[in-house]
Amino acid sequence: MANTGNQPDEYSDKEKELGKVYDRVLMRRLLSYLKPYKLQLLIIGLLMVGTTLSGLTGPYLMQIAIDRHITPGVREGLGTIAIFYVLVLVAQFVFSHFEEVRTEMIGQHVMYDIRQVLFSHAQRLDVQFFDRNPVGRLMTRVTSDVQTLNELFASGVISVLTNLVQVLGVMVAMLLYNWQLALVSFGAIPIVLGTGFLYRFYSRRAIREEREQLARINTFLQENIVGMTTMKLFTQERRSHLRFNERNRKFLTANLRSGIYIVLNNYTMSQVTSSLTLAVIVWYGGGQIVQDTLTIGVLVAFISYAGRFLGPIRGLGGKYAVFQNAMASSERIFDLLDTQPTIASTTPKSGASTLKGEIEFKNVWFAYNDDNYVLQDVSFKVKPGEKVALVGHTGAGKTSIINLLCRFYEINKGQILIDGVDIKEMNLEELREAISIVQQNIFLFSDSIEQNISLGNPSISSEQVKKAAQDVNLDGFVQKMPAVYDTEIREGGVGLSVGQKQLVAFARALASDPSILILDEATSSVDTETELLIEDALKRLMENRTSVVIAHRLSTIQNADKIIVMHHGEIRETGTHNELLQQGGIYYRLYQLQYKGQEKNSN
Known about the structure:
Blueprint: H1 10-17, H2 23-31, H3 38-70, H4 78-124, H5 127-132, H6 135-177, H7 179-186, H8 188-226, H9 228-233, H10 237-290, H11 296-337, E1 359-367, E2 373-382, E3 387-391, H12 398-405, E4 413-418, E5 421-422, H13 428-433, E6 435-438, E7 447-448, H14 449-454, H15 462-471, H16 475-478, E8 488-489, H17 498-511, E9 516-520, H18 528-542, E10 546-550, H19 554-559, E11 562-567, E12 570-575, H20 577-583, H21 586-602
Parallel strand pairs: 3-10, 3-11, 6-9, 9-10
Antiparallel strand pairs: 1-2, 1-4, 4-5, 7-8, 11-12
Helix pairs in contact: 2-11, 3-4, 3-6, 3-11, 4-6, 6-7, 6-8, 6-11, 8-10, 8-11, 10-11, 15-17, 17-18
């Protein structure tokens, strides 16, 4: 739905404020999604221990081979050690492989769970939320941001735990071999962690900016692809390309900035630290060998352990990028999840029978923004089965009445009653189940014709779909389709005529058998044959049910039991077609300007 009344982009401002030190809170919320996978995590823990122990065994075997066989020249037993070494490598590979597979599976399942929660929550949010937030930005939340969290679970949290277990295991082994040399090696820890902390401090804003620019590009692309026909009609391709180039350049700059931080931390600083540490070990250990206080085998094993020690330490430093991306994404995801609907149903389902369909507006005032009222003291009553036409100039408040009746927005003052019950006291789902609305801008999904009519409602059978299509004169067209009712149509109904889309929308409304029908008649012109089909379908659609129509067809207005004339948010006139013409007021002038031509054409 379009933004109503120049409302602000809610997330644009919020995202600029995000980035405070919420890490602990965010991580706790993220880790809560791992609870259903405790058994899998236990298995990963056991595999982690197996990987670590097998990794520690290799250098020990090398030390024995050098000190007991190679240096003294004892060949016997060397082959056995080599075989054991190969077996240890195979075991390490097996443990590591299954650990990674299990970790990836958990990451994918958690990502699936978060997407489910996000989509379910988005469906509960009210129309005002979607007025304020671009579709492309919301798409980024459900796709790109969730994908980033997969990196956290698949190669972040579990990987950090693996690295920690390996570091602790190697530290114990190094201390047992030579505590002095071990302490020299441990000097690398504060350097690696310190550079990682600095990286975290400076990179977070860059990563958040990168995500924000991605959301802006997605929003721009979504709008321009949907509106491509308009762009071409007004020859705005070049200007659109320039605007995209500007956004793309900002995204490039943000990517380069965050990429520089990643390279500096993951590679430059880590490699320098590792090389210096190994140089110190060789210098100090070599001196001990010269003094005959250390064997060559122990030094070789120590260098191997140092590599296995520095690798996980580098890995821990490198995970800052993963964690920073995840923090930036989780901030936006949880901000969306923390957004509560302003219109919520507090009343449980009553299970009551079908509503009679009586509608009453009592002194209703409504504004989209603050006190800029679009409806002012509106009062009217529609009896069950009555057909009411809303007429008036653009901006008179007709669509607002429809939105309020469906409770897409809350009124500022007054009451809206259905069958004498305030709609605020009705269960929201039951209220909307009792109402079918046919909007002027009809939206069709990328699905079969049958699914577009039933909208996947299991209580609407295939027979009911076909009956509804027959009643609104759609069946003849559908029977000519390749797969009849199973024919797939593209998003928005591309390839269908305006009239055919309207008939599909009529069938959709009729199939749900509503107590109240709301219709915003399309203003688009159709051919004479289709116009006759639509008029006949409208008569059947409104038969024996309360109908409220924003009317553009003269035939609909003339057949209405009551016409409500809106002007600047107020009801100015009420009556039948002939009564209002005789009054010579606003409706008379509207008739002369808009509807009289239709009467001539029909004649």
